[in-house]
Design goal:
Length: 348
């Protein structure tokens, strides 16, 4: 299993890169660089390419609405060149709050748009002349639109790889099925090994049935927070505010994918209670309603024997790569946790 983590630069951009360099030496394999409505991801990814030697540098995630498909492909190809072939293009739809509220772009047809974006990106990387007549993207622009002077073009440079891995962050049944069909990697949310089949099994089966046989199997990234050692269990409690926010307050009452996943994971009653409490303004009570059982199953926090048991459960459920966050008050403590996890994974 490869080990990945999300780079956080809330404490300083250059400090975050320095920590990734230390994590790389401790055994980190992949770093996800976020982009919501903070600094852009590609700037940080280029900086990481210059400062690291081995880690895969992945956007985590670039929203498909904020750039043209061709620019997404160019960005990934440029990063792949700078990093000597260490790029991964992580894509996602984000949500209307960000896309319409911050970018001023209509949020529509996320699955269909993602499908077209992937097709266009793969044409660019193969240096084909890009011609695409889709429902949402037409390249070149039709003669009756614009100036009529557009013509098919191909990428000038030769990328290191002509098939850069594409990772998709998807939640809903239709989008997960499309991910299994088209993508190279998948980042699920609220993943627990025990419930994975019930929540996503049908969608994954549908997508895999249509998957190109020449593509490698889908790389599934999941894991949770990491704190390996005796007496660490209380650190699981730190997940309560974030879990309550997503389960209770992310989206409308009638359309909250996180709440749906939580309910399908075996917490039907708890999902409703948490949402009711959160939307009523009682966030503390919503946090307290998160089951301790869920906090344990969705983390890698506890004695070495517990963490190893959870690693086996993740692997048996289909997880091929870990996506984790390291607990610790300092970079040194987080790096130490990475080393512990690396040793456990290598011993399996």
């Amino acid at each position: 299993m490869r080990i990945s983590t999300l780079m956080s630069y809330s404490g300083g951009f250059k400090e975050a890169v320095a920590e990734i360099k230390a994590l790389e030496k401790a055994g980190l394999d992949v770093v996800w660089v976020p982009e919501a409505y903070s600094f852009d991801a590609p700037t940080a990814m280029g900086y990481l390419a210059a400062e690291t030697e081995r880690v895969i540098i992945a956007s985590g995630i670039l929203p498909i609405y904020t750039r043209t498909p061709s620019l997404l492909a160019m960005t990934a190809a440029g990063l792949d060149y700078l990093s000597d072939g260490r790029a991964m293009l992580g894509l996602g739809a984000s949500g209307p709050q960000v896309i319409e509220g911050f970018h001023g772009v209509p949020y529509n047809a996320p699955v269909a748009r993602t499908r077209e974006v992937i097709e266009i990106c793969r044409k660019v990387w193969k240096r084909e002349k890009v011609q695409h007549l889709g429902k949402h993207y037409q390249i070149p622009l039709p003669q009756n639109e614009g100036t009529g002077l557009g013509k098919p073009l191909k990428l000038i440079n030769h990328p290191v790889k002509d098939d850069i891995p594409i990772a998709i962050a998807s939640l809903g049944p239709t989008s997960v099925a499309a991910t299994a069909e088209l993508a190279d990697a998948w980042l699920p949310a609220f993943y627990t090994p025990e419930a994975a089949r019930a929540v996503w099994g049908e969608s994954l089966d549908q997508g895999n049935a249509k998957r190109d046989g020449d593509r490698a199997p889908l790389d599934i990234f999941a894991g949770g927070s990491v704190a390996i050692g005796d007496g660490m269990e209380e650190l699981r409690e730190r997940a309560r505010p974030g879990a309550a926010l997503y389960i209770g307050g992310m989206g409308a009452r009638s359309k909250n994918f996180y709440n749906d996943i939580f309910a399908k994971s075996g917490y039907v009653d708890e999902a409703k209670i948490i949402q009711d409490l959160y939307l009523a303004g009682d966030k503390k009570a919503a946090e307290e309603a998160i089951p301790a059982d869920y906090l344990a199953k969705s983390s890698l926090i506890g004695p070495e024997s517990f963490v190893k048991e959870r690693l086996y459960a993740l692997r048996e459920s289909g997880v091929t790569s870990l996506n984790v966050s390291f607990a610790g008050q300092s970079a040194e403590e987080r790096v130490a946790q990475c080393e512990k996890l690396r040793n456990l994974v290598d011993s399996m």
